[in-house]
Amino acid sequence: MALYRDEGVVLRTVKLGEADRIVTVLTKEHGKVRAVAKGVRRVKSRFGGRLEPFMRIDLLIAEGRSLDVVSQAASIGTYAAEICIDFEAYSAANVIVETADKLVSTEHERARDQYLLAIGALNALAKHMHEPTVVAQSYVMRALSAAGWTPRLDSCVVCGRRDELAYFSTLSGGMMCLTDRTPEATRLSREAYRQLRALISGDWASLDEAVYHGGAVRDGAEQDTMADIGHRIGQSAAESADPKISMRSGIGEGHVRAPTLADAARNAAQSAVARIVEEWGEYYLERPIRSLRLLHS
Ligand SMILES: [Zn+2]
Q: How far is the CA of 112 from the centre of ligand 1 (A)?
């Protein structure tokens, strides 16, 4: 049997017979590969726990007539353990592997962009770099964009004008102006529009800001006094040695406050964006991303 070597990330596994499993792996050079891991469910398997979802592994695979067979597997990324001890990260990681599995539909067809996006997102979850839900949402939009389904955000999908863009239509593929909007299009606030753009471009500075202290509304239409406080929190975070820690703790320490209009606007924007991500995924993959629904519930 011919052998090939590649690195990959385990997307899912299914039981096969008494002790085996079929593992679905998204690889760097060979696209999606399904291969049998023999004896993997035995207590003393030579694969140990290396062939579980989210594991990044170096693989040696033997080509088989119907299914390939895993010959060797060595761990190269330890982030699966970090993901599995944090329920939010775990739920978000499920969105990533489910989406990647659905998006890369053909086996043995190189999909390097998809591989890099998937391991980038899993790595961000393992290192707790950003809010897990937002990592999952951004991953879904970017993976679909890489596959050719990028929403048009800068101009109306009907007439091309660049102002008065206030509605989003999944069916038509992007933003619509007030004149051209169709009944199924969703009204988007400026904040929601900004968040959606940031998700697709991977603008984490804006996304983290929107999640942690609602500062994102400060240059939007919905200005109020909280916007200034949000701005100050942002500044103190930027000045400190560890921005992530101070951003998380800054609100609790110096700025205990009741929910404001700005918070409400921010939360409404997040729900609107969550719905769009779900719709966009379902429409272009032609089936729902089930774990995404669990994430928002
Ligand atoms: Zn228009």
A: 36
- 124-174 per-position pLDDT tens digit: 999 999 999 999 999 999 999 999 999 999 999 999 999 999 999 999 999
User: How far does residue 159's CA lie from ligand 1's centre (Å)?
Assistant: 4
- Give, to the nearest 10 degrees, the angle between helix 243-254 and helix 204-213: 20
Domain boundaries, the chain: 3-79, 165-296
Report the residue count for the chain. 297
CATH number at 3-79? 2.40.50.140
Amino acid identity for residue 247 in this structure: M
- Which residues are within 5 Å of ligand 1 (an ion), measured at CB? 156, 158-159, 177, 180
